[in-house]
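re: that complex we talked abt at group meeting.

here r the seqs, copy pasted straight from the sheet so there may be weird spacing, ignore it
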Amino acid sequence: MSSENGKLLPETDAGGLNFEATELTLGLPGESRVTSDGVAKLGSKRGFSETVDLSLGDNKNTNKFGQSQIDVPEAAKSPVSKAQVVGWPPVRGYAKRRTKSCKYVKVAVDGAPYLRKVDLEMYNTYQQLLTSLEDMFSCFTIRNYLSDKKLDQVNGIEYVPTYEDKDGDWMLVGDVPWQMFVESCKRLRLMKSSEAVGLAAPRTPPKCSSAS
Amino acid sequence: MHKKMAFSFPDEVLEHVFSFIQSDKDRNSVSLVCKSWYEIERWCRRKVFVGNCYAVSPRMVIKRFPEFRSIELKGKPHFADFNLVPDGWGGYVFPWIVEMAGAVPWLEEIKLKRMVVTDESLELIAKSFKNFKVLILSSCEGFSTDGLAAIAASCKNLKELDLRDCEVDDLSGHWLSHFPDTYTSLVALNISCLGSDEVSLSALERLVGRCTSLKTLRLNRAVPLDKVANILRRAPQLVEFGTGTYAAELRPDVYSDFAGAFSSCKELKSLSGFWDVVPDYLPAIYPVCSKLTSLNLSYATIQSPELIKLVSHCPNLQRLLVLDYIEDSGLEALASSCKDLQELRVFPSDPFGVEPNVSLTEQGLVAVSSGCPKLQSVLYFCRRMSNEALVTVAKNCPNFTRFRLCIIEPRTADYLTLEPLDVGFGAIVQYCKDLQRLSLSGLLTDRVFEYIGTYAKKLEMLSVAFAGDSDLGLHHVLSGCESLRKLEIRDCPFGDKALLANAAKLETMRSLWMSSCAVSFGACKLLAQKMPRLNVEVIDERGPPDSRPESCSVDKLYIYRTVAGSRFDMPPFVWTMEDDPSLQLS
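got the structure back, here u go
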């Protein structure tokens, strides 16, 4: 995925609630949230559930019995890789496995009472993993920690993806090449931005993965 | 004159007659005939099946069937297999074990599916049931090899230990060594789900050697090829075998050892495993192929030419699980070699890739449907489909009982006409009158649901994703499918109206799952009020549903009938609708 003017934010809508800015887009550093034609990128939630969630209290989805107007966003596809919808296609761990065993790690989110598990073997790139985490923890805003942009603080708390490696150290996600990350990651934690100060920052900006 | 109908058979005779009636459905029917039949039947029911562990409490089951010896329980909804049910949702078996430990000491069999099983539960099983024989855990989690050690150490009469698709915590203990040297009654062992380094090979070899009745052995990946021969030689009577890892450099001595061991197994009917299989080792199994009825190659990353060679050696194959490496050409070969094929499952080798990596299309499915007259059960992942192909398949296979098609990209239209696939699936339900299970995919409008509601009268389970236009779709299904027991829906524009209009239907079903649909919280509350014998569970990780407007859609909804009331073990992200104004948080 190419780097656009990653620093610009999309326009706020009339209501003053900048949905796009607070929308979850876990991205690798340098990536924009919006493609050049203004369509929301893969990293944001899309599909039916997005339409529902973003129109709180708005009954545009069904006006009368049988007549619904679902606006499925067009931005569902990228020619290079696609974001993974949680649980789709409906393959189980065993059916996906080819040569390596599952690499399940627990994912904790600060402030959330529950854990999820992800199978790192399911992904080929950081982008895929982060998108999937977005889907799983859809109520949290996860910050692109390496970009300098100041996100609207409307939603308040932002989260930074971190992981514990084999040595027990907590590192920022995106630090090392993907495969190395998969091998050394023991568990993931979406840490509140304020607490992530002091974690090892990447020495060089990770490249967008070409291996997708 | 008053003619009195009296059953003059003594209870023992009726009991004997009932003992020939094994199916739960029939047993349930028997118990409805009259009060005395109800009484006799409940005392002699030996196998209890509970399709939803929250539909009834363990005490109720024990009270009604005091003498059961076998219990089967299912926990989480099916979509838990695909990560849609958050960890901690529920499905704990421990409370059941506790109740049964006290009241059913002669329990022999426990079969669990999608339940959380702790080491504590396993230890309690090991301690409590002196005649325990069969433990089958399917897609379960929550236990470690410590729990298995307890079972191995204490269950002297154990016959079956089957851990299919479980998630087991690797504590690298030599749990297999806990089977005493005097223990010889093992008939079936399935440890294929265990991770590496969890099995002590020498303990396994000794165990296999002394259990001369062993018929089923499914190894895990940790068992290397050169050790497999040792194990096979100790168990030439095996009927079902799952290899360990196949990865090995091709060495003539290992190969001939392996081939020799295999050829001494004259009874083999089912093979599985094949992780990392190297094609050069495949000919070693050709001698047993002619007797094979079941072959699971879903881990085998071999390509179409080798797969074709393999299946052409298996004329008696009834069941095949395979990756889409088999391609259309391989399925055509299958269709011409395996005329007894009843069940086919084709899994995607690269489910998340955008472009097809193999040449597997609707043609392969059509070929098998045409060549295999006994085909009944299909699970097929592919990337394109046409109405024409589906209609052909439907006409070729009117005997389908299970048809699950997954077109990998959601909302994919008929690739020839660009139309929805309504007509194709419509043909499936129209021609396949005995269809019990159906999974839909591709571009589908409300029309497909109209077909389903009209024709699928024997349908018991329906899975729907990214389909339909409106509540009418859901309404067609709920009002038309008379035999429907389980309905699971994700990402469809189905909302309140159809659900509320068909509230009574939900009590005739086991469960309904809806996620990423358009059901409002308000409707959930209304439904729960209307239907006190349903548990309406809202699973929402965004926080309490009443912190949002009532018209806001819930994230996930799981509705099931129950006579046990609300459950007590709900995690913080599950809400049931209670009558009192404050929401119940358990």
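couple things i noticed - The helical segments of chain A are 19-22, 48-54, 93-96, 126-136, 178-184. DSSP finds five helices and eight strands in chain A.
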